[in-house]
Amino acid sequence: MSSKEEVLILDFWGSPFCMRVKIALNEKGVGYESREENLFGGKSELLLSSNPIYQKVPVLLHNGKPLSESSIIVDYINETWPSPPLLPSCPYEKAQAKFWVDFIDKKVFEAGGNIWRSNGEALEQAKQEFIEILKQLEEVLGDSDFFGGKAFGFVDIIAIPLTSWFLAYEKFGGFKVEDHCPKFSAWIKRCLQRDTVAKAIPDSEKVYELVAQLRKMNGIE
Amino acid sequence: MSSKEEVLILDFWGSPFCMRVKIALNEKGVGYESREENLFGGKSELLLSSNPIYQKVPVLLHNGKPLSESSIIVDYINETWPSPPLLPSCPYEKAQAKFWVDFIDKKVFEAGGNIWRSNGEALEQAKQEFIEILKQLEEVLGDSDFFGGKAFGFVDIIAIPLTSWFLAYEKFGGFKVEDHCPKFSAWIKRCLQRDTVAKAIPDSEKVYELVAQLRKMNGIE
């Protein structure tokens, strides 16, 4: 990285979407500054002006130019700092990876939210749906080390941060991911052994506290 | 295109998502076969086996290898047949285009659906939201000929098919897009002058009949 480059993340420690950006930059060996946003108080002027459409973290400011939406940011990082590549070069394999990125984006966080936001019957259903989604992902993973095959790649970067919320889902849902998806659970452990991942992912107990706080704010129990 | 290539679309004439694939192939000068699916009767075995996750059109089978999710397919087409390019080569501009593709994917068709699926108060609100989204797109378009600037490109391909449903929204919603978004309306007309677009987009009256049928099937009025 040239010494002139400015790489700033408008960040929130508990956001899986922010973690994606940090892991991608770590994988590329790109240094960055992180500026923590106060999502419960007031968002910064810089966040509001950089992402006027969604007003959400993460925003990546690269030499002052803003980017938003985490999967798009990770793609940008991959193109801007090509080594090591996070996507296959074959267009078909790349499209397959993008398909699963899109699947994960559409399904996992929302299904998890349905667990911690609900009780009783609705909770049971949310749990079933969540496990079903993980089973689909487990099938894609198969016996590979990573979604990218032997190498940790784009799909892994998109998926692994979401697992930092799993302890909270497990505690509020009364289940264990490992009991249903052993290979997926092994993949989580494998990813967390990477420095690039470990230093971007917060402690699950701390995330659990955050989710407990969100439940209170949503008037649950 | 090599004469050995097989390019098959599992298609439905009224689907804006299928239209995207056809426009992209037309822009690239790639010949294709289209196989119409019976979405209201039974879907083909080929569709179910090619897209087991969503079981939806469009599917592109390129030399027998299936791809799904229209924006991902258009990206694949752009990479597989590089000329003419549909995206800017600059990673930042490419990310901006991808941001708007994602925005359009998340917002426009759903907001339109909220118009034809509702009545009374809900319809009024749906209409306001729909117009608001188009105004945001109109602002992005500015005084350019296309979302891609002077050249018709990726964002245009993603957006223009959705406008084939606008007459239905207008008729069921009692409004005119042109009254609210004159520049966006001019962009629609400009796109429809392209052969690559015109031959992939059905007559709006025919789409209106389809939406009327969908309303009946949904028990509306």
Automatic annotation (TrEMBL), chains A, B:
Keywords: Cytoplasm, Transferase. PROSITE patterns: GST_CTER, GST_NTER. The keyword Endoplasmic reticulum does not apply. It is an enzyme of class 2 (transferase). One of its GO terms (molecular function) is glutathione transferase activity. Residues 90-210 form the GST C-terminal domain. Pfam families: GST_C_2 (PF13410), GST_N (PF02798). PANTHER family: GLUTATHIONE S-TRANSFERASE (PTHR11260:SF547), GLUTATHIONE S-TRANSFERASE, GST, SUPERFAMILY, GST DOMAIN CONTAINING (PTHR11260). This is Glutathione S-transferase. It comes from Ficus carica (Common fig).
